């Protein structure tokens, strides 16, 4: 489908949001000026291997890896693009020639290329560094367009949760070795993540709304946005009220954990193999749904965010500043970030992927989970709806690899006990189950099995030993026989 889109872009020709660069054997010198201008204006699409007239010249296949590497390194170099911005490159073959496609979203920040500010109009990229009024208008437009940029000059570092900042630093280091956040102080991390800025109207500096939402104490968040909450509801038996509920006013990082725990507690996790690897469909779906619910919300709107599981469907609702209206088609939609700064932090800590990939994953895994595609509807309220009528026992419905269906779906406790017929480490058990969150795994499954004496420690006198393993007990074996 990307090929069709590229052909359509070439037919449209260059304009405000489309740019061609030949780049046959190396990156053009002005390519990053164009990217800077796209980021500063309203985003755009860049095609490498196409002449200004729209002729497909192609990129030399021998240097594609070199070009990609050079591009990624430069985009992450604050001396070149400041603040840095993550972008990916897709390869497309058209007329037996390779075109490199780069989607550049609109950024909530003002970016500089080689310490110069570029803006975009129909005629190309323009250096506005020394045009004070244009620069001021650009900054003001960003603050108005993205509520996450609102500055709270009286908010201090003590209004944020240092433990959550430390957690984000640790999670980022898991994603990338020698992550720059590792050696930064808390304030340096906040500044590096573009969560500290200047209010042009008052000329005061302070922590942004994005920083408060990501790391703030509950009292700080509610002081900034009194209506902030996410309402997680289970409504299966008591349809008039609820069977379970979690009223969440925590910062976004802690909200993610609580929503994930709620979803894992109330949704089944059917057996599914991707290749020869068992993965958790439930975890994959919840990760995308929750990150979307938390990241792409218009926080200034008092509409309450909802995360609801009922008899027939699992759905979410959140306020939205829509760029499009109607049902999202994963084959031809153009993603547009609602809160790019918040999204970037979520990517750094491994709770979100590149823009647009989450929708494709949702359609893939939801189909396998219950046999139905999800419905994503964008308007002033964004809605995700997944039917739950189809059975999710046995081999997951719609398994793309054509594996045999009807494999017995065991309870998670049964899976653990069978797996531990030979002693296993906790990390190996968690990996086998496809659970990403250690605390959820420990509290919901491992500790209860130990308490019931269905599992036992191989080194009982040293529970925290690095060599500790878990094995099924005789009581556990009898319990399995009873379950059969």
Give an overview of the whole structure.
This protein is α+β, with helices and mostly antiparallel strands. The protein folds into 4 domains: 2-133, Methyltransferase, Cobalt-precorrin-4 Transmethylase, Domain 2; 146-224, no CATH class; 230-387, Heat Shock Protein 90, CATH 3.30.565.60; 412-483, Winged helix-like DNA-binding domain superfamily/Winged helix DNA-binding domain (Arc Repressor Mutant, subunit A). Helices cover 36% and strands 19% of the residues. The chain is built from 16 helices and 22 strands. It has helices spanning 2-12, 31-40, 64-75, 132-145, 162-175, 186-192, 209-215, 218-224, 252-266, 281-295, 340-348, 357-370, 412-419, 426-433, 438-451, 474-483, and strands spanning 18-21, 44-48, 81-82, 90-94, 97-104, 112-113, 118-121, 124-127, 151-152, 196-199, 204-208, 230-235, 244-248, 273-274, 277-278, 305-310, 313-319, 326-327, 375-378, 381-387, 455-457, 470-472. Helix 10 packs across helix 12 (357-370). The longest helix is centred in the middle third of the chain and has 15 residues, at 252-266. It is globular and about 75 Å long. Mean pLDDT is 86; it is low at 390-410.
